Amino acid sequence: MPVRSAGLLIYRFFETRLEVLLVHPGGPFWAKKDEGAWSIPKGLIEPGEDELSAAIREAQEELGVEIQGAFARLGEYRQPSGKVVVVWSAEANATLSVEAIRSSEFQIEWPPRSGRIQNFPEVDRAEWFPTGRAEIKILKGQRAMIADLLKQLGRE
């Protein structure tokens, strides 16, 4: 059975334009990567955890803010790694500001084989992108999520 993750595709209407919230992964591997490196907030589903609860928890861990609202199941997406990501869409409330993002951290040995353990944020930044720009920024395996959001919102 493939590894399963859950996440939220958070969106807003800015003036009349649809925008989605994407996060850039923290840590040294992703530091100089931009196009094709961004993601929706997501993470592993814990054993026995409800998938939507996992998506909300992971988004809150990566963003550092509480996510509330109506969640609409968007679909399941098999990633190039074989992992399956279960995604819900959620319209952002007016107070969700990318400047307020405070991600949880992870530890890795860096530089490799140095014996030195360093802390890095799971997410080093978040940004609102118009959907056309988001399709360039997001990981290849997640592009279909944006297309499905457009269909879900009747904006294809």
Mean pLDDT score, rounded? Answer: 93
User: What spatial form do the alpha-carbon principal axes imply?
Assistant: globular
Instruction: Give the tally of β-strands.
Output: 8
Note poorly predicted spans: none
N/C terminus separation: 33 Å
The helix fraction, in percent, is: 10-25%
**Percentage of β-strand residues:** 35-45%
Radius of gyration: 15 Å
- The SS-based structural class is alpha+beta
Query: Major β-sheet, in short?
Result: 6 strands, mixed
What letter string, H or E per element, gives the SSE order? EEEHEEEEEHH
**Number of alpha- plus pi-helical segments:** 3
Would you mind describing this structure in some detail?
- By secondary structure, this protein is of the alpha+beta class.
- 19% of the residues lie in helices and 37% in strands.
- It has three helices and eight strands.
- The strands form two sheets. Strands 1, 2, 3, 4, 5 and 8 form a six-stranded mixed β-sheet that branches.
- The termini are far apart.
